[in-house]
């Protein structure tokens, strides 16, 4: 969920509960502390994993996660512990989406270091090695888990965080980069997200080749896509919801129209190779939008569908 002006927890909870009642499989939020417009004085920042911890206790069925978290925000050992804690709180319903981070102004505004691109990729590789290493280390292992890298070091952790899901919560990695993103995803991801725009079929093919190079069956991983949505039962509803999608890039890749149009766009994503689709919703207070999608769109599609707003 990436609300235009931020959100309070009660707003996020109302949206998540509506998503659950409407029959969706999952509710994902973004991991941002600043809005797309950095000058927006109304933006209310919330911490992604703090709110997911609240949702873990205040929902019962839907899966929860970040699409995607910024690896620059948290040290790997802390993040492994946070996610394992929320996984336990939810009864094993958590997924970890992780990316390199991209919003330089956001980092400046909150005093968070923002290395250059190559270093951010180096860091996320080490972070994933540490997170999965900690999660896979049995409690009581006499040697514990250790890691020595260029950016992070872990020494003899004999009490690693233990998530509820075995071997660990699913990891989502994605993006449009043609080299390092699919290579990292091939090594660590349970799901590869092809992001927005461009040739999704080709991105999935690049990921499949990266899996083969890594000695992994590409079919082991889910393939997902994001679809911005402005759906309405009437032209006026479509116009009102579509007007909120501000950027030309988002509008070009959005499904703006009737429930039937949204169903058709989901089918196109399936034909491109996606088995999971995230519907990106812009107005978090428009709960009728979620209910319409659950009532008119979900019965006509198969496979996992999630709300990310």
TrEMBL record:
Protein's UniProt keywords contain Chloroplast: no
Pfam families: Bac_luciferase
Domain of life: Bacteria
Keywords carried by this UniProt record: Flavoprotein, FMN, Monooxygenase, Oxidoreductase
Domain Luciferase-like span(s) in chain numbering: 5-240
InterPro entries noted in UniProt: F420_OxRdatse_Rv1855c_pred (IPR019952), Luciferase-like_dom (IPR011251), Luciferase-like_sf (IPR036661), SsuD_RutA_monooxygenase (IPR050172)
Protein name, per record: LLM class F420-dependent oxidoreductase
Organism taxonomic ancestry: Bacteria, Bacillati, Actinomycetota, Actinomycetes, Pseudonocardiales
């Amino acid at each position: 969920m990436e609300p235009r002006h931020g959100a309070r927890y009660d707003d996020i909870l109302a949206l998540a509960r509506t998503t659950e009642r409407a029959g969706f499989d999952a509710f994902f939020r973004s991991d941002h502390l600043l809005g797309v417009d950095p000058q927006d004085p109304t933006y209310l920042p919330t911490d992604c994993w703090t709110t997911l911890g609240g949702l873990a206790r205040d929902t019962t069925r839907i899966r929860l996660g970040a699409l995607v978290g910024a690896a620059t925000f948290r040290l790997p050992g802390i993040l492994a512990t946070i996610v394992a804690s929320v996984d336990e709180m939810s009864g094993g319903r958590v997924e970890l989406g992780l990316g390199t981070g991209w919003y330089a102004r956001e980092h400046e505004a909150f005093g968070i270091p923002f290395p250059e691109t190559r270093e951010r990729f180096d860091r996320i590789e080490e972070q994933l090695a540490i997170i999965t290493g900690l999660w896979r280390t049995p409690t009581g292992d006499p040697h514990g888990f250790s890691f020595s890298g260029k950016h992070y070091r872990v020494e003899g952790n004999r009490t690693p965080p233990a998530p509820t899901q075995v071997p660990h919560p699913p990891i989502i990695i994605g993006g449009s980069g043609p080299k390092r993103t699919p290579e990292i995803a091939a090594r660590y991801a349970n799901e590869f997200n092809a992001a927005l725009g461009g040739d999704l079929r080709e991105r999935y093919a690049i990921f499949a080749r990266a899996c083969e190079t890594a000695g992994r069956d590409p079919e082991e991983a889910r393939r997902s896509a994001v679809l911005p949505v402005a759906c309405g039962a009437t032209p006026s509803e479509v116009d009102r919801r579509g007007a909120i999608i501000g950027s030309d890039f988002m509008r070009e890749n959005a499904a703006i129209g009737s429930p039937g149009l949204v169903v058709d766009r989901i089918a196109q994503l399936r034909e491109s190779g996606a088995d999971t689709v995230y519907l990106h919703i812009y107005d978090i207070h428009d709960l009728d939008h979620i209910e319409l999608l659950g009532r008119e769109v979900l019965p006509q599609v198969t496979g996992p569908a999630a709300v990310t707003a």
